[in-house]
Design goal:
Number of helices: 26
Structural class: alpha+beta
Bound molecules: 2-(butylsulfanyl)adenosine
Shape: globular
Length: about 700
């Protein structure tokens, strides 16, 4: 994996490719987390991707992409909610990972303010609640609207949902005329577990952690559903105010508490880094008994005048920082290793553990990644854990970083049983017996059984009904397994013929455990609701390897309709020529993804299965902006060098709204290069290829008046 190449060794070309790859991964992770409430990677992995991206950008500033993830907060607003423009932007926080980072934070602030080390400077330290932020606007004491953070500038209007949360007052006495209170919506561990059990019983999707459960519950189009979910709210910040709440952060929190908001009881005033770190340790000790997830401690300069003087960087305040907790660890015994077969045939080893509590949550399963990881090797064959392998019977260290799947970090060789043997990774699929092979350069061994493998079929079906794809209410993992086991569904198309086939069979369904007439009819209605469906969801639902949620949206926006997509894929399967080049011209689509996409449509069994599915659907075209007057509509534009009148993100979204495609690198397909000062290799290449090149002012002249 390129991830392992040290940044100092990256060539310019490798850095460009790596930035494109990271941008794709980060966008997809962001969309899974924020827009679909179904995270794909852990917070720690996400932080690592962002850090690597930033480091590469710092080394190669001229390669920074127009859509650099560094400039983005969260994700754009999901469809279905009204939009609310925040009167004051909702920002994120910089991170500190160790004590030194905290001391550096204090030193930076003193330097900025011109205060020497002896000058008193207090901070508040408050738990960083792991939920989702919400901004509540009160006018003359009355709650008028509530908005999620969205991209920081525009959030989703969730007012009616917020009104159902009992911690959020509808009326506030003695409040400034205009008052925006900000804080975190979260769900307790106990409520999360109860909700998931109930979801599972009903055949609804379960949530992977309390934060996603909170986000999924708040972002419901039907407020009645939000009302039935036990959400809580802590207030800790504010947006627009017609009069200040206090002169200090600590005072403002006290004032919010007086007005009837819940504020966190572990908030404390500290007089410098030593006290901050002391309070951090005490919160860390209390963490597993709090009953809700926190992922660090936030430090804020207490004096609000000083906060104003310190101000903001592009997405974070200078006056605050989040001191993150390290992953939570525990030791336990590895009882067995199971091999699970995924949707794309990947054989994934899962550790079955003697149950152990890690940070307040009981863990009995953890991922072991792949066979090399078990053997003590990284993806390049270099030793990890100093080469220690992992065996059944071993004492292993489990960690959980407030995230999706617990992992195994280490093994204690001193406690290894004498008769233990190295784990023998299967070379045949445990589900269908087909050979399981490892392609060169692939860390993963895969079952070659394709659609004859029942495990792959079931996983594909689970993906198909999942939240980011067809999102069929009443059909979760459990129901898919049951229906597949009973021979009712073998492929997605079968879901849409269930009602007809079970005309009489409804009786049969009714007699099954957990199904009544009402729930069966509700399921068939929910299936009917999805006969009309957006193009991007269809593409994503197919579960093609490497074609994730973000890529599906890119493909949908590029081709516009199902017929345009399929008629382009057939000629593209030559893997050369205009249709292939056109597919690769999509910013974010690389050869690996394109190859996987065309291969899926080339496979006669898969193609037939897709055709059967599509015959049941009305696929809604992607809505592209009206660009009839635009001189750049349909053109492929590349931005390079430093831009002075707009940020890269603005340039990209403006160009796209005018119907242009924005690419990350110059190729024969490029129609126009917009080059600012410092443009390097891209400008050179454009000149070689004879591509039109203009500067930033030229760009504004071109799009003048649009
Ligand atoms: S202050 C301008 N305080 O963490 C700074 N944020 O990573 C505004 N969060 O978006 C944020 N607990 O969702 C602040 N006590 C706390 C917090 C907190 C949780 C979240 C919040 C924010 C994110 C930043």
């Amino acid at each position: 994996m390129t991830q392992d190449i040290s940044i100092s060794e990256l060539s310019e070309d490798e850095a460009t490719t790596e930035l494109a790859r990271l941008s794709g991964l980060i966008t997809s992770a962001n969309s899974a987390y924020h827009t679909k409430d179904a995270p794909e990677i852990s917070d720690a992995e996400f932080d690592a991707l962002k850090r690597r991206n930033l480091e590469i950008e710092e080394k190669f500033p001229h390669l920074k992409r127009a859509d650099s993830p560094t400039e983005q907060i969260g994700a754009s607003v999901a469809e279905g909610f009204g939009k609310i423009q925040h009167a004051v932007r909702m920002l994120s926080l910089g991170n500190a990972f160790d004590d030194q980072d905290v001391t550096d934070f204090d030193t930076r602030i003193r330097k900025y303010l011109g205060l020497d080390a002896t000058h008193p400077l207090s901070y508040t330290a408050e738990p960083k609640i792991d939920g989702l932020s919400l901004s509540l606007r009160y006018e003359r004491g009355r709650l008028v609207h509530a908005a999620t953070r969205g991209d920081g500038t525009t959030g989703e209007n969730v007012t009616e949902n917020a009104r159902t949360i009992s911690d959020i007052p509808q009326l506030v006495e003695n409040a400034p005329d205009v008052m925006e209170i900000r804080g975190e919506v979260y769900m307790s561990h106990a409520d999360f577990q109860a909700l998931n059990s109930a979801q599972e019983k009903k055949g609804d999707k379960t949530f992977s952690n309390p934060r996603n459960a909170a986000a999924g519950s708040l972002r419901q189009l039907d407020p009645e559903i939000t009302k039935s979910r036990p959400l809580k709210f802590f207030a800790y910040a504010w947006g627009e105010l017609s009069a200040p709440l206090s002169g200090t952060q600590f005072g403002a929190i006290g004032r919010m508490a007086q007005m009837g908001f819940s504020t966190n009881p572990l908030t404390q005033l500290c007089d410098g880094p030593t006290e901050l770190i002391k309070h951090y340790r005490s919160i860390e000790t209390a963490r597993s008994d709090l009953g809700y997830d926190i992922d660090g401690v936030v430090y804020k300069v207490d004096d609000l005048n000083l906060q104003t003087r310190l101000g903001f960087r592009s997405t974070t305040p200078r006056w605050a920082i989040a001191h993150k907790f390290p992953a939570e660890l525990a030791w336990t015994i590895l009882e067995s290793i199971d091999i699970q077969v995924g949707r794309t045939g990947a054989l994934s080893p899962v550790a079955r553990l003697k149950p152990v509590t890690v940070g307040g949550v009981v863990v009995s399963n953890a991922t072991l990644h792949n066979e090399d990881y078990i053997a003590g090797l990284d993806s390049n064959g270099a030793p990890i854990r100093e080469g220690r392998d992992i065996r059944v019977g071993d004492h292993v260290q489990v960690y959980r970083a407030g995230d999706v799947i617990p992992k195994i970090a280490d093994v204690d060789l001193k406690k290894r049983p004498e008769n233990s043997v190295a784990f023998d990774f299967p070379t045949r699929c445990p589900e269908c017996g087909s050979p399981a092979i490892r392609d060169e350069g692939d860390a993963v061994r895969r079952c070659t059984g394709g659609l004859i493998c029942p495990a792959q079929t079931v996983e594909k079906l689970k993906h198909f009904v999942s939240r980011g794809a067809f999102d069929i209410d009443g059909m979760g993992a459990k129901q898919v397994e049951q229906f597949h086991h009973d021979g009712w569904i073998k492929e997605p198309a079968d879901i849409f013929t269930l009602r007809d086939r079970f005309g009489q069979g409804l009786q049969q369904l009714k007699n099954r455990e957990g199904w009544g007439e009402k729930s069966a009819t509700a399921l068939f209605d929910a299936i009917d609701d999805r006969r009309k469906i957006d193009l991007d969801r269809v593409i994503f639902g197919l579960g093609i390897r490497h074609v994730g949620a973000a890529a599906s949206t890119l493909l949908a926006n590029h081709y516009g309709s199902w017929s345009a997509l399929t008629s382009a894929i057939e000629p593209a399967s030559a893997r050369e020529g205009a249709a292939w080049d056109d597919l690769l011209s999509i910013d974010g689509v690389g050869t690996v993804m394109a190859t996987s996409l065309v291969a899926a449509f080339e496979n006669p069994l898969e193609a037939a299965s897709i055709d059967r599915l599509v015959s049941h659907l009305t696929i809604v075209d992607a809505v592209l902006p009206d660009t009839s007057d635009s001189p750049v509509a349909g053109k492929t534009v590349v931005f390079t060098g430093s831009l002075e009148r707009m940020t890269r993100a603005e340039a990209k979204s403006r160009a796209e709204s005018l119907g242009a495609k924005v690419a990350g690198s110059v190729s024969k397909k490029t129609d126009l290069l917009v080059a600012g000062p410092g443009a390097g290799s891209k400008a050179k290449k454009a000149a070689e290829l004879g591509i039109d090149t203009i500067d930033e002012d030229g760009w504004f002249d071109l799009i003048d008046g649009l």
